[in-house]
Amino acid sequence: MTDALASALLDLVRPGIKRVVRDEVRLALDDRVPRWLTVRKAAERIGIGESAVRERIRNGSLAASKWEGRWYVEAAEIDRCIARARYHPRLPHNSGAARL
């Protein structure tokens, strides 16, 4: 196979490969796979608004990853934030929604 033919074939299959990979990643980030949460789901889980989650992402107090223009927060990170808020010495232990 010549380099030109190989290059042409690669150009033809590349969009399909990208689409398959993108779909697989999207499934891994989907709500059915609870490792990653959208900003909306993270906000619901913490008990705060979406804008508050985005602000925490911006100021670095909540670790997140951006993929295709959307922010995703690891579920374990949310659990750590809830635990920190729950056991914060200045907050009542039964204060209702967790505060970050």
Give a short synopsis of this structure.
The protein is mainly alpha-helical and 100 residues long. The protein has helices at residues 3-29, 39-46, 50-59, 75-86, and strands at 36-38, 65-67, 70-74.
Description:
- With 100 residues, this protein is mainly alpha-helical.
- Helices cover 57% and strands 11% of the residues.
- The chain contains 4 helices and 3 strands; from the N terminus they run H-E-H-H-E-E-H.
- The protein has a 3-stranded antiparallel sheet with strand order 1-3-2.
- Helix 2 crosses helix 3.
- The C terminus is likely disordered.
The shape is elongated
Number of domains: 2
Averaged pLDDT: 80
Assembly context of the chains: single chain
- Indicate the CATH class of the largest domain: Mainly Alpha
What layout of secondary structure does this protein have?
Layout: H1 3-29, E1 36-38, H2 39-46, H3 50-59, E2 65-67, E3 70-74, H4 75-86
Antiparallel strand pairs: 1-3, 2-3
Helix pairs in contact: 2-3
What are the salient characteristics of this protein?
57% helix, disordered C terminus, 100 residues, Multidrug-efflux Transporter Regulator, Chain: A, Domain 2, mainly alpha, 2 domains, 3 strands, three-stranded antiparallel beta sheet
